[in-house]
Specification:
Bound molecules: zinc ion
Order of helices and strands: HHHHEEHEHHEHEHEHH
CATH architecture: 2-Layer Sandwich
Number of strands: 6
Radius of gyration: 19 Å
Number of helices: 11
Helix content: 40-55%
Strand order of the largest sheet: 3-4-6-5
CATH topology: Muramoyl-pentapeptide Carboxypeptidase, domain 2
């Protein structure tokens, strides 16, 4: 297996954002699931005393090393898990943040000439290289709580999205619907090519491994904690009128922790968040 540690970024120097009370829940969650060596805890305490606050996605360098080594050993054993690395935090400029909030839906097709660098997961699925550390960290947190997720669909090409759409239409036709009806119904579940977040590489469909966990366990955990890792439930049940997509408890979109926290707190969907911004 490839050594994924090359994707680990070094923390950047700079002023961290002021602590927000809303993050405290994520921090408590994180502290429960990351049993770190006492040295790391001591380092964290010193960092805190020095007045530097870390948000729920940020890890210091010693934590990175520990987690990277630990997770790296586990990775080759479990099929379908992301390869392993850990995100480090830091202050980013607005330009660097823009990519996280790209809105793609029926009314906002994929930008022309959109291209990304992908990372291939152990099971062959791909994701945008930039979301991979957060994804890995989230999966590791789930495993630490005895829940075993799998990325069943990540980045898709235009052709792959078309194929999924064709298959869905065919499925409805086989149930007796006319081709027009089938096409309309399929679009409630599958985005038209050019309008799918999967083509951005920033969205993942996450399910259970089917051996150690059930889909519902995975969905419940994600619904509760995914925002701590910068992911949002993109198509919530109460937003189908706005998103145009039926409730998909498995589809998560990376937007970064700041946006994810706000979206979760205010009960928004990405369309509403983008409009308010
Ligand atoms: Zn999806």
């Amino acid at each position: 297996m490839k050594d994924m540690r090359r994707f680990v970024q070094q923390p950047r120097a700079g002023k961290r954002k002021a602590e927000d009370w809303k993050r405290s829940r994520c921090r408590r969650h994180r502290s429960k699931i990351n049993p770190l060596p006492s040295l790391v805890l001591l380092f964290t305490m010193c960092t805190f005393l020095a007045g530097v606050t870390a948000n729920c996605m940020e890890l210091d360098e010693s934590q990175e090393t520990f987690l990277t080594q630990t997770i790296h050993q586990q990775s080759s054993e479990k099929e379908g898990e992301p390869p392993l690395s850990v995100e480090s935090g830091g202050v980013q400029s607005d330009a660097e943040e823009d990519w996280k909030l790209i809105l793609v839906n029926r009314n906002h097709p994929l930008p022309q000439d959109y291209s990304i660098e992908t990372v291939t997961l152990d099971n062959g699925q791909q994701v945008d290289k930039r979301i991979y550390p957060a994804l890995q960290q989230m999966f590791d947190a789930m495993r630490a709580q005895g829940i075993y997720p799998v990325v069943v669909s990540g980045f898709r090409t235009w052709e792959e999205q078309q194929q999924i759409m064709d298959e869905k239409i065919q499925q409805f036709q086989m149930q007796g619907y006319s081709s027009d009806q089938a096409e309309e119904m399929a679009q409630e579940w599958v985005a038209l090519p050019g309008t799918s977040e999967h083509q951005l590489g920033l969205a993942v469909d996450i399910n259970a491994d089917g051996i150690h966990s059930t889909g519902q366990q995975v969905y419940d955990w994600l619904s509760e904690y995914a925002h701590c890792y910068g992911f949002i439930k993109r198509y919530p049940e109460d937003k189908t009128q706005i998103t145009g997509i039926s409730n998909e408890p498995w589809h998560y979109r990376f937007v970064g922790t700041d946006a994810a926290l706000e979206i979760k707190e205010k009960g928004l969907c990405l369309e509403e968040y983008a409009k308010a911004a």
